[in-house]
Amino acid sequence: MAGGPELERLITLLARLPGLGPRSARRATLWLLREPVGRLEPLIEALATARQKVRRCSRCGSLDTADPCTICADPRRDRSAVMVVEQVGDVWAMERSGLFRGRYHVLGGVLSALEGVRPEDLNLAPLFARLESGEVREVILALPATVEGASTMHWLAERLRPFGVRITRLAQGVPVGGTLENLDEGTLAAALRARLPEEGDERA
Fold first, then answer.
1. The CATH number of domain 5-53 is 3.40.50.2300
2. Which of the residues 55, 77, 103, 151 has the least number of beta carbons within 10 Å of its own beta carbon?
3. Which of 150, 131, 141, 149 is nearest to 192 (CA)?
């Protein structure tokens, strides 16, 4: 390729980002290098800072520069409601909607026999620890409307019932195969308002 191996490596790395392919990566590379001081250097600095300071919250599993994260440390958030999501992007999506004022728990994945994801691979221990404290009264299961998401919700609900909490799940508005990160605020609002009791939960 014209430009040498350094440019090829940059394009290859950018092409790995979600939503970017080789062609988009080439355009992004050219845009960055057109003004290195104003475009490339700030990006390099931001990436270096993120690498040094961003960490996972030990309570909920989200990403922040503080531990506990900003949401977990906020005394104005409702401690009694915890929304369980698959990934950090789901937290960001729900926060953009401004509809939920409780706290979150990021599993880091969903159970999948095909992908070899087992319960021990998920971020579960901190969730159970929060429930043991007695401050949580409702757990909202906001996992993807997929086979894997449904099986994870069912498995998790069975483990949550002994804690005596209300177990609900998002209902209307979340399409089959959809993820929270890709939904608009209106759809999220409908799903949150119409959440249903998890099957077998008599308290809901």
1. no
2. 55
3. 141
